[in-house]
Amino acid sequence: MSITLKDVEHVAKLARLALTEQEKEQFTGQLNAILKYAEKLNQLDTDGIEPTSHVLPVTNVMREDEVRESVSNETALKNAPDEEDGQFKVPAVLE
Fold it and tell me: Which terms are listed as keywords in the entry (predicted)?
């Protein structure tokens, strides 16, 4: 698979980029070099290799949940700038 000048022009148009002819040629070469390198990776024997998403094992470091008393409604509203019917009162955002 290779990238053509037409492909670079198409992507530039989608991204609304104004590229010079020199930049188009430069990007075509760079993108083809990237694809060539990626094809090298396809030559590796990966049979028996388990797919991974991380190099190191990822473990959850959060503590266990424990039931405990919550802040009371009165305490939460104590410093509120405005409250109504036991709830925070905020300016309307919809008309």
Answer: ATP-binding, Ligase, Nucleotide-binding, Protein biosynthesis
Report the C-alpha gap between 27 and 35 in whole angstroms. Answer: 12
Which residues lie across from 87 on neighbouring strands?
A: 84
Compute CA distances 87 → 39, 49, 71, 78, 83, whole Å.
Answer: 60, 56, 14, 11, 5
Rounded to 10 degrees, what is the CA torsion of 57, 60, 61, 64?
A: -150
50: left (phi over 0), alpha (psi -120 to 50) or beta: beta
Single-letter amino acid code for the residue at 9? E
Tens digit of each residue's pLDDT (9 = 90 or more) over 34-62: 999 999 888 888 888 888 888 888 888 88
Per mean pLDDT, which of 6-10, 69-73, 75-79, 81-85 is the most reliable?
6-10
